[in-house]
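Design a sequence for this backbone.
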């Protein structure tokens, strides 16, 4: 039997890479990656701090590094909702390649890191089914999220909001990682990962609803791609996402995106920089009438597209969130009227039916 050839995309145990002036030694491979490109965990300090470094298309690496973390409610401390990456370059086989670099998601003592889809579905989701696994398992998703603690639900809401804020609608269950207790699998934290779809269809979008995926994104690839709606079946998660959007300062977000773009573009040089800008712009302008940046000040054109899309998205999502919250409050007011009328008529303080239970204290406090 012939010897099995080594996977060219799995780094060898003695491999090292250089980013800037920093030397990173290989620690362990990244398991379960469904695409080509070298990827693994590396450390520059003997393993004390480990980073995930992934080779990818330059535009994808730029997109992954473009994520901003913005908290519209500074009076409420927001746990880190995502694993933020930065773009970079390495030398592979005598040529430069683009990479994304991010800190490893490490669990506290007594816990392990687990993919969210594996926790929800019992297996890694299959991405190329005709109908999404989220649609097929929407009831299971609702049950699992409903059983999470309030703190983890708030973390999930923050992660969803951050994804939407940055224009990444790829909110399927495989885009999150969780930390769970080794013994009872109780979830203590959740993080959003992998922002390679950031900005996709941004200039074409004409639908802005925090509760649903846009038609541009949802109509491509497979049926049942309204991913966010399955995560927002839990009312606590949904209401917090809406609250975050209603308090969003669009001008401040645009300013932070502008600064992040400047920082990330500077991480890629030479021919890879032009390639990254054009590929990223291709994602931004996909399905739109906006022409691609082709010549001249390409960086300036891509920046303009990005900031226009960010402003339109934030204004649209904020307006939609306000309407959704007003509707929710109206529904609660009608419920309250029914109960008060029943009390006057019967002297009873019990809900009119099991379907009309009073909203939770959390819901009332946050309306």
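Sequence:
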């Amino acid at each position: 039997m012939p010897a099995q050839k080594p996977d060219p995309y799995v780094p060898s145990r003695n491999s090292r890479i250089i980013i800037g002036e920093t030397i990173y030694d290989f620690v362990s491979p990244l398991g379960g990656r469904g695409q080509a490109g070298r990827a693994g965990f590396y450390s520059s300090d003997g393993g004390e701090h480990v980073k995930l470094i992934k080779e990818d298309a330059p535009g994808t690496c730029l997109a992954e590094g473009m994520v901003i973390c913005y908290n519209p409610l500074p009076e409420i401390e927001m746990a880190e909702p995502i694993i933020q990456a930065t773009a970079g370059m390495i030398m592979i086989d005598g040529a430069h390649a683009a990479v994304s670099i991010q800190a490893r998601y490490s669990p506290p003592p007594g816990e392990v890191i687990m993919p969210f889809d594996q926790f929800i579905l019992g297996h890694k989701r299959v991405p190329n089914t005709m109908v999404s696994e989220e649609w097929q398992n929407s009831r299971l998703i609702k049950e699992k999220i409903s059983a999470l603690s309030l703190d983890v639900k708030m973390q999930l809401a923050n992660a969803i909001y951050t994804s939407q804020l940055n224009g990444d609608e790829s909110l399927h269950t495989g885009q999150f990682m969780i930390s769970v207790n080794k013994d009872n699998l109780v979830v203590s934290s959740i993080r959003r990962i992998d922002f390679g779809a950031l900005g996709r269809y941004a200039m074409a979008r004409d639908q802005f609803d925090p509760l649903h995926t846009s038609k541009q994104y949802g109509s491509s690839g497979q049926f049942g791609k309204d991913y966010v709606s399955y995560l927002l079946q839990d009312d606590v998660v949904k209401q917090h996402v809406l609250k975050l959007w209603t308090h969003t300062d669009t001008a401040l977000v645009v300013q932070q995106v502008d600064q992040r773009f400047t920082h990330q573009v500077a991480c890629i040089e030479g021919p890879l920089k032009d390639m990254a800008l054009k590929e990223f712009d291709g994602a931004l302008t996909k399905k739109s009438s906006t022409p691609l940046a082709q010549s001249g000040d390409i960086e300036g054109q891509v920046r303009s597209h990005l900031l226009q899309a960010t402003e339109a998205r934030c204004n649209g999502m904020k307006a939609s969130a306000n309407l959704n919250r007003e509707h929710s409050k109206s529904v609660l007011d009608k419920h309250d009227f029914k109960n008060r009328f029943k009390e006057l008529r019967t002297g009873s303080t019990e809900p009119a039916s099991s379907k009309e239970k009073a909203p939770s204290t959390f819901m009332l406090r946050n309306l």
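The beta strands are 16-19, 22-29, 39-43, 50-55, 85-92, 95-103, 111-115, 176-181, 187-192.
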